[in-house]
Specification:
This is Helix-turn-helix domain-containing protein. GO terms for molecular function: DNA-binding transcription factor activity; sequence-specific DNA binding. The relative contact order is 0.05. The protein contains 26 helices and 17 strands. The chain is rod-shaped, with a radius of gyration of 62 Å. Among the domains are: 134 residues, Beta-Lactamase, CATH 3.30.450; 78 residues, PAS domain (Beta-Lactamase); 133 residues, Reverse transcriptase/Diguanylate cyclase domain (Alpha-Beta Plaits, 2-Layer Sandwich); 91 residues, Homeodomain-like (Arc Repressor Mutant, subunit A, Orthogonal Bundle). The two termini are 50 Å apart. Helix 2 runs antiparallel to helix 10 and helix 13 packs across helix 14. The protein has 771 residues and is of the alpha+beta class.
Length: 771
């Protein structure tokens, strides 16, 4: 049970390790197959080598014996040699000369066969022995030329010369020849007839010359090489005494054919037998060797192979463990991160790869759903953005650019303007039929507008019967832009009014170069459309064409709202611009009577009072005296300047508070990084979660305050600490990487080299040469 728990705990490690082990096993199986084939090849090679030597020895020995037989037949048929067969007293009278003449005749048989040591002719009746060199009586020949120390003369004579022998080769035996011991083969051929032998021709064959034929075959460690005749008698042997050699039964030897290989078994006395049989005389040439002699090279290779296999297995297991550990560590980190992110316990006993696959699949599904939801919300978000632009709620050119890009709107044209279209013929009461009719007209109008006016015109539903048209144009001059808008609206009016019989009125605001003036153009379009309602005019009404009235002051609602919003943001330059615009319209361009100017200043001060209470209620500034000055003073310009200074003070207060908040937030961020940079999971998302702010704001705020990206700052902090540890300690690089917040030493080394231009070890050596 404990084993199963441990295996379950390390299931991921085992899953990664098993393929390496399978590879090692397959490699060993392949090696074993190659090894077995190699053994067989070497065994066959040794057997072929032995067989080749045996065949050569057999061929040479048969050729040499054939030469011996030929010489013996020539001697046997020589007339002079035949005449001496019946001589009884070889040294009487002229018989001595005949013997000398026959001996001299033997010189004619010049022997070139290096196997033949010498040859002799023995005559039974005269008991003499002739050779090319001398003539001996048998006792003298036994004593001085050839004898066996283990036998007497009579026993020796009976064994060698009695009876009839025809082409008889006696087995190898130890004799004394001219007072020196020799191992000899003795070839015998009797003279006369089988029932009346008259003598014997005896040829001495030097066994040393025979043994040279088998020099290529090893005869050590109990090996034996022997030649066996048809009766199973050993003729020649090497490596053991002929009497000690235990030859195989001839029938068992030749059971599988006249030549071949018999592997070691109890029948072969645990010897490997290589043999071949002569077709000429039926002799069997046999090599009996222990298996370790036959397979000496094979066993040598076997030792090398097994040693290499053991080393391969050892290093293979070590490398498999190393690579498995290296692959397992990041996978465990991924699984742990996924578990923490999804708060999942499903992978405690399950398949980690299935868990990763399922988690990634869930992430992909969630992302797909999020993308679909974002695409579904895109029209609503775009409508909300247009609503903010028209009302002046987006403050700052940079913020407008960011908001437009977020909606994939690349509106970088030079001029912009707003036209407000209103369907006519409807009162202020609502009904289902009226709303359906307006929806129908709105769809028809938008379809025609997109077909006729192109892509740089955007529409926004302001109310049930009003549609705002936003124009963007990249013309060089304002007049060209006005001409284009006029032409577009006239084309649209002709198409809709005449073709579809839909009536509407259009008010057009001013053309401006800044997108921040969209709200102003919209307000001007509203005023133009309002003028149409009062005067009952037709067609397209331009704000610039409206008559300048002196009965009212200029302080539209959108300007008041925009002034408050901009002041709340602390943007003094924009506040100053809006106040200057109000001053120009009311004090310069319009000649307002004092009561109207007082009303204008009262409105301005009233909005200032509301703003002061919202933004700076705790300040010591009191604006109540301004209300009294409005009624007591005739110098409205002086009061207006005081209002401007109050707006400046509010902007300064807002900016000071923002700076204080920014400093506190920046301090919190830096403290968080200093205390958590050694944690590998510290990133923009984690920091934003801890600080309870959005990651987008955190990234933008940190870049504005420090001039460096959040991730780059964390990496610099980690690199700074890593450099200190490399110089001041002897910690391993892997330990340092974990200490400074990296899961992988490879990732740490790449980041360190990218930041410092040297690897960690290179940096340590460069800063500490004695390291």
């Amino acid at each position: 049970m404990q084993l199963m728990k441990k295996m379950g705990k390390h299931s991921l490690f085992l899953r990664l390790l098993v393929p390496y082990l399978i590879f090692i096993v397959l490699a060993m199986l392949l090696g074993w197959v190659i090894y077995a084939k190699t053994l067989q090849l070497f065994e066959d090679e040794v057997s072929r080598n032995n067989m080749h030597i045996l065949e050569q020895a057999k061929s040479t020995l048969e050729r040499r014996l054939a030469e011996v037989e030929m010489v013996v037949q020539q001697l046997r048929n020589d007339p002079k040699i035949m005449r001496l067969q019946h001589v009884l007293d070889p040294f009487e009278g002229a018989m001595t000369y005949r013997i000398w003449d026959t001996q001299r005749q033997l010189y004619n048989y010049n022997l070139s066969n290096n196997f033949i040591l010498d040859y002799y002719i023995y005559y039974n009746k005269s008991d003499i022995v002739l050779s090319p060199h001398s003539t001996y009586e048998m006792p003298k020949f036994y004593e001085s030329v050839l004898f066996d120390p283990k036998e007497g003369l009579d026993e020796w004579r009976d064994r060698f010369f009695n009876g009839y022998s025809h082409r008889n080769l006696m087995p190898t035996q130890r004799v004394v020849y001219h007072d020196r011991p020799y191992d000899m083969l003795i070839y015998r051929q009797s003279l006369g007839y089988p029932n009346d032998p008259q003598g014997t021709i005896m040829v001495l064959i030097d066994n040393r010359e025979v043994l040279k034929l088998f020099e290529g075959i090893s005869s050590k460690d109990g090996s034996s090489i022997y030649v066996m005749d048809e009766q199973g008698q050993i003729i020649i042997s090497i490596g053991a005494d002929p009497a000690a050699v235990q030859p195989m039964n001839r029938e068992e030897l030749l059971h599988d054919g006249p030549s071949g290989l018999i592997k070691a078994s109890p029948k072969t006395a645990d010897m490997t037998i290589t043999y071949t049989t002569s077709r000429q005389n039926g002799w069997s040439y046999v090599v009996a060797q222990p298996p370790h002699i036959v397979l000496e090279k094979v066993f040598y290779i076997k030792n090398i192979v097994f040693t290499a296999a053991a080393i391969f297995i050892l290093f293979g297991i070590l490398l498999a463990y190393f690579f498995t550990y290296r692959s397992n560590k990041p996978l465990k980190a991924i699984v742990r991160t996924l578990n923490e992110s999804f708060h999942s316990e499903d992978n405690k006993t399950g398949n980690p790869f299935f868990f990763i696959q399922r988690s990634v699949s869930d992430l992909v599904d969630n992302n797909t759903r999020l993308q679909k939801e974002m695409r579904r919300q895109a029209p609503l978000l775009r409508a909300a953005l247009f609503e903010q632009l028209l009302k002046g709620e987006v403050i700052g050119e940079k913020n407008i650019e960011t908001a437009l890009l977020h909606q994939n709107l690349h509106l970088n044209d030079r001029f912009c303007g707003v036209a407000l279209l209103q369907f006519t013929g409807y009162d202020h009461s609502l009904s289902q039929e009226m709303l359906k009719d307006l929806d129908y007209k709105r769809v028809i109008l938008k379809e025609a507008m997109h077909r006729l006016l192109g892509e740089h015109i955007y529409d926004h539903d302001v109310s049930e019967d009003k549609i705002a048209l936003l124009f963007f144009d990249n013309s060089d001059h304002r007049e060209d832009c006005e001409r284009l808008i006029k032409q577009s609206l006239e084309t649209l009016s002709a198409e809709i009014m005449q073709g579809l019989n839909i009536s509407f009125a259009i008010g057009v605001g001013g053309i401006y170069e800044s997108r921040m003036e969209i709200s102003k153009s919209y307000e001007e379009a509203r005023q133009a459309l309002s003028f149409h309602g009062r005067e009952q005019t037709r067609g397209i009404i331009w704000f610039d064409s409206l008559p300048q009235e002196q009965t009212s002051y200029y302080y539209p609602l959108d300007a008041a709202v925009r002034l408050v919003n901009v002041a709340k943001s602390g943007d003094w330059h924009e506040v100053e611009r809006l106040l200057d615009e109000l001053y120009r319209n009311n004090f310069v361009e319009r000649h307002l009577p004092l009561p109207l100017l007082q009303l204008f200043i009262c409105d301005l001060v009233a909005n200032l009072a509301k703003l002061h209470e919202q933004v700076a209620p705790d300040t010591a500034v009191d604006i109540r005296p301004l209300m009294g000055q409005v009624h007591d003073s005739d110098d409205m310009k002086k009061i207006y300047d005081a209002v401007v200074e109050h707006y400046r003070a509010i902007c300064d207060h807002v900016n000071e508070r923002k700076r204080s908040q920014n400093l506190r937030l920046l301090d919190d961020i830096l403290r968080l990084i200093d205390g958590s940079y050694m944690q590998a999971d510290l990133n923009l998302d984690a920091a934003a979660d801890r600080l309870l702010i959005s990651k987008v704001y955190l990234s933008q705020f940190f870049k504005e305050q420090t001039g460096i990206n959040f991730s780059d700052y964390i990496e610099n902090k980690r690199m700074e600490e890593a450099r200190k540890l490399l110089v001041s300690t002897e910690m391993a690089v892997n330990d340092i990487s974990e200490r400074v917040g990296y899961n992988s030493s490879n990732t740490f080394c790449r980041a360190f080299k990218r930041s410092n231009g040297l690897s960690p070890l290179g940096y340590r050596k460069a800063t500490n040469p004695h390291c």
